[in-house]
Amino acid sequence: MSSRLIGVGVGPGDPELVTVKGVHALRAADVVVVPVMDTGERGRAEATVLHYVPEEKVVRVVFALNERTDRARREAAWDAAGERVAGLLRDAGSVAFATIGDPNVYSTFTYLAQTIAELVPGTVVETVPGITAMQDLAARSGAVLTEGTEPLTLVPVTAGAAVLKEALAGPGTVVAYKFGRRSGEVAEALRETGRLQDAVWGSALGLPEESIRPAADLDGAPLPYLSTLIAPARRDGSRGGKL
C-alpha cells in the first residue's frame, strides 16, 4: 500500500475549533508530526494535538519556522525535516502533519509535501481543512468579513507595507497576517488609507493570553508575531447595500 501524508489544519489555537474530520485524521494516523522551532518550545499545533492523541504518538520535527533571511539555513532545515518525515512514512505508512490554521494557507505543510514527493515517490498527499485565524477573529470580535459583492484580500505583512497599503486602498475587507513585528507600519498604513476606525487585531486567539483590541490602540509596540488584523470594507450601514 502507498504511504499517506495528511496535512491536518488544527485551527488557530483553541482546541475546540479542530474539526471532527481533523480529529479523526489525527487519531487514524500511525504517527502525528508537529513542527517545532530549533529552540524546542512547544508550539500551538502540538498543544492542540495533545488534546486528542496520546503524547507517545506525537513526533516533534524541527523546522526553521522563524528563519526569514538565511535562505541556505532555511532550505537545509526543510531538507532535514523532509528526511525525518520520509523515514516515518517508510516505517509507519500513515503520517498526519498538524499545522495551525489551514494546511493550504501559508502553511509549512506545502513545502513538506513538495519535499516528500521527491523523497518518497508515490506517497498519497491529502489535506484536511482547518479554521483560520481570520475566521476566529471575526467570530470573536464581531467583524464581518464579507458582504454581497465585496472582495476579501489576505496579505502577509512579511511581504512589506507597500503590499498592505495597496490592498487597503481597494474596496473590500483586508486581512493581514504575521504583522506583530511591524505593527507601527500597519497602523500608519491604516491611517493613511482611512481604514483605522473599524479595524481590529487579535493574537493568541482562544488561549488564556488572548488579546483582541481595536486597531486604533496600536501604538507601534511589537506584538506577537502571529497577530491577525481585520480591516472591514467601507460600508454605509444599510442592509444588503453591497448586493
What would you note in describing this structure?
The chain has seven helices and ten strands. It is of the alpha/beta class and 243 residues long. The strands form two sheets. Strands 3-2-4-1-5 form a five-stranded parallel sheet, with helices on both faces. A five-stranded mixed sheet has the order 6-7-10-8-9, sandwiched between helices. Strand 8 (200-203) and strand 9 (211-214) form a beta hairpin.
Write a short abstract of this structure.
By secondary structure, the chain is α/β, with parallel strands linked by helices. The chain has helices spanning 20-28, 44-49, 71-92, 108-119, 133-141, 161-168, 183-192, and strands spanning 4-9, 31-36, 58-62, 94-99, 124-128, 152-156, 173-177, 200-203, 211-214, 228-231. 31% of the residues lie in helices and 21% in strands.
Give me the secondary-structure topology.
Blueprint (H helix, E strand, L loop, with lengths): L3 E6 L10 H9 L2 E6 L7 H6 L8 E5 L8 H22 L1 E6 L8 H12 L4 E5 L4 H9 L10 E5 L4 H8 L4 E5 L5 H10 L7 E4 L7 E4 L13 E4 L12
Parallel strand pairs: 1-4, 1-5, 2-3, 2-4, 6-7
Antiparallel strand pairs: 7-10, 8-9, 8-10
Helix pairs in contact: 3-4, 6-7
Q: Approximately how much beta-strand content do the residues carry?
A: 15-25%
Work out the number of β strands. Answer: 10
- The averaged pLDDT comes out at 90
The share of residues in helices is: 25-40%
Report Rg. 19 Å
Order of helices and strands: EHEHEHEHEHEHEHEEE
Q: Strand order of the main beta sheet, please?
A: 3-2-4-1-5
Largest sheet: 5 strands, parallel
End-to-end separation: 50 Å
By DSSP (H or I, 4+ residues per run), the number of helices equals 7
